Amino acid sequence: MKRVSFAEFGGPDVLRLTDAEEPHAGPGHIRIAVRAAGVNPVDWRIREGQKLKAHPVELPSGVGQDASGVVDEVGEGVEGVGIGDHVLGRGSSTYAEFAVLSAWARMPEGLTFEEAAGYPSVVETALRIIRESGVQPGQTLLVSGASGGVGSAVLQIARDRGITVIGTAGAANQDYLRSLGALATTYGEGWAERVRELGHVDAALDLAGSGVIHELVELTGDPRKVVSIADLRAPEAGARFSGVTGNVPEALAEAVRLIARGRLHIPVEKSYTLAEAAAAHTDSAAGHTRGRRVLIV
């Protein structure tokens, strides 16, 4: 089979589309014929060699965690899913023609493989950091860097829970944030004052790692109410860095429920082939994403 991998840490140019042995589903796992794979910032951070304790890497390594596809192997002890089922889920080395998943859910009706591949990690992350921020219904959550996949999920999940959301993003994405129910403003000089004009902030999330932790602490008045998924130095200001995956099966089940109710939709901004994985990483690292980027297999 074809698989995207890297034999050394570095820039996007270290990615190679190579021939590899097919993986197989062990106990408690399933294998899918991959139809699409989600592109997440953690993918290129691992490729660069950033020291993420939750993601140890042995070289050469495959790439990717999220995928959608058709079940073609079911491991021992697995129930409730069968050969031919369409699923979305999380596993390893998903930038490939076949991948083993450790957590999955059946795809909701009306969702394409391309769309489905964009949900697993972003919804798990969104649910986790909303919980860790401590924000409650009736309060206001500030989301810095809100237009990407995780931000899109956070805004919609928070609004579904009765939480007011303020989102920051580039000028081109202001209408997009408003379409998701957020009060929107641009980042850049004077952004914190613009946020204050929109209302009191009870908790804040840093999704972009753009050096705004101190301002987020000032806006909330409590570093314990600030959570970052992109700034490893956040704890230096008393805030939390969240990088350890939570309950993925629970998150997938919640994603499916929200999608089925019409309460969650994350658009695919751009699709790539496996051979274009390097370009997908370059674009992801550049930011300014509206929704998700995925690889089509």
Describe the structure.
This protein is an alpha/beta fold. The protein has nine helices and 15 strands. Strands 3, 5, 6, 7, 14 and 15 form a six-stranded mixed β-sheet that branches. The protein has a six-stranded parallel β-sheet with strand order 10-9-8-11-12-13, with helices on both faces. Strands 2-1-4 form a three-stranded antiparallel β-sheet, with no helix packed on it. The mean pLDDT is 95.
Keywords:
globular; 28% helix
Q: What's the SSE blueprint?
A:
Layout: E1 2-6, E2 16-19, E3 30-39, H1 41-48, E4 61-62, E5 66-74, E6 86-91, E7 98-106, H2 113-116, H3 120-133, E8 140-144, H4 149-160, E9 164-169, H5 174-179, E10 183-186, H6 191-198, E11 203-206, H7 213-220, E12 226-228, E13 240-241, H8 248-260, E14 268-273, H9 277-286, E15 292-296
Parallel strand pairs: 8-9, 8-11, 9-10, 11-12, 12-13, 14-15
Antiparallel strand pairs: 1-2, 1-4, 3-5, 3-7, 3-15, 5-6, 6-7
Helix pairs in contact: 3-4, 3-8
Alpha-beta classification: alpha/beta
| Number of distinct helices | 9
Euclidean distance between termini CA atoms: 11 Å
Shape: globular
Kindly state the number of beta strands.
Answer: 15
Query: Which range best describes the helical content: under 10%, 10-25%, 25-40%, 40-55%, 55-70% or over 70%?
Result: 25-40%
- Largest beta-sheet details: 6 strands, mixed
TL;DR?
The protein has helices at 41-48, 113-116, 120-133, 149-160, 174-179, 191-198, 213-220, 248-260, 277-286; strands at 2-6, 16-19, 30-39, 61-62, 66-74, 86-91, 98-106, 140-144, 164-169, 183-186, 203-206, 226-228, 240-241, 268-273, 292-296.
